[in-house]
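Thread title: Can someone regenerate the structure for this chain?

I was given the following input by a collaborator and told the matching structure tokens would be attached. They weren't. Posting the sequence so someone can regenerate them.
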Amino acid sequence: MYPPYQGRAKYPSQGYAMNIHTTQPPYISSANPTGTRWSTGLCHCCDDPANCFVTCMCPCITFGQIAEIVNKGSITCAASGAVYALLGFTGLPCLYSCFYRPRLRGQYDLEEAPCADCLVHFLCQPCALCQEYRELKNRGFDMGIGWQANMDRRSRGITVAPVVGGGMSR
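Best answer:
Regenerated them for you:
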């Protein structure tokens, strides 16, 4: 462990400024060392009832939309959704979708919560897809128009305002 520092001092080997009475360098967050929190919880499906309904009835649509944004348009919504639907006949489409959650987390530095990514998809596939959809939507993506149209809007200065969470919390 690092020795406590008094006042503002430099962490010797890294050159980072330390805060008063801290015991660790500032780049290590004691509140959340694994990344930032998701904008909504795993079981907050009622935050977007339309998406919840679509995901429960035809999860390949929601997955296709997520995959197109995460892949930055390299694979279309229809192609990803079709692969997901075909794997649905085997009963294990979560084997395909669970590889997208870590990619999404990596792009936005999100924590691996509430458990391992593949477990989230295996145990509660619809909730995982809804949470990923809401995360992208809350980050300003219009999920219905795809990657290219979102990038065209951004280049023209048209953006969808991100959804702000419900107030401050500790």
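The radius of gyration is 19 Å.
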